Amino acid sequence: MGYVVTEVELSNPRQPERRGVVVNARVDTGSMMLCVPDSVARQLDIDAESMRDVEIADGRQVKVPYAGPVQVRFGDRTCFVGALVMGNEVLLGAVPMEDMDLVVNPKLGTVTVNPASPDTPLYRA
Length: 125
Prior knowledge:
This protein is mainly β. Helix content is 11%, strand content 48%.
């Protein structure tokens, strides 16, 4: 089975006049956060707020910048999150996917809005 990749638009809501960046994001339901490479953080001109401890896939713990806010758009759905500045590709984790009520179909390699709530995200409280 391969990776699931989907197109999202990232933007800086503190600078609405600035054009968003359309990227292919690797979908990772095992990751919690949005992760962006330093080059994307610079394009968005998002500010690092602090350093965060992160456990990466091989079990090591590293400190990385936490920056934001970032507006994430998938189709007509959007959310606002902080981003871990790390790696060499955009990683779309569980928090922004849950916020936009998206579902992953690993067999088809697709991301879609939740078919149970096609018009607007449904939140569980």
